[in-house]
């Protein structure tokens, strides 16, 4: 029984990891600047504000 529980937990962790990676990969292309995303969310909002002002 413990073996089944362990396999279920590992499967859930792998599934969550896959979903997280896919969501991160999907959110990257539209931004076109991965370093700003990794740096801080405020810089991203400032960049969008600059684009709107221009």
How would you portray this structure in words?
This protein is an all-alpha fold. Helices cover 91% and strands 0% of the residues. The longest helix is centred in the N-terminal third of the chain and has 30 residues, at 2-31.
Distance between the termini: 63 Å
Give the helix/strand class.
mainly alpha
Task: Give a short account of the largest sheet.
Answer: none
Oligomer: single chain
**How large is the count of helical segments?**
3
Count of individual beta strands: 0
Rg over CA atoms, rounded to whole Å, is: 18 Å
- The general outline is rod-shaped
**Low-confidence regions:** 37-44
Arithmetic mean of pLDDT: 73
> Residue share in helices?
over 70%
Question: Could you spell the SSE succession in H and E letters?
Answer: HHH
Strand residue percentage: under 5%
């Amino acid at each position: 029984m413990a073996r089944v529980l362990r396999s279920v937990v590992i499967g859930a962790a792998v599934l969550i990891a896959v979903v997280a990676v896919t969501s991160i990969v999907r959110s990257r292309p539209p931004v076109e600047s991965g370093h700003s995303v990794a740096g801080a969310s405020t810089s991203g909002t400032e960049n969008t504000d600059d684009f709107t002002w221009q």
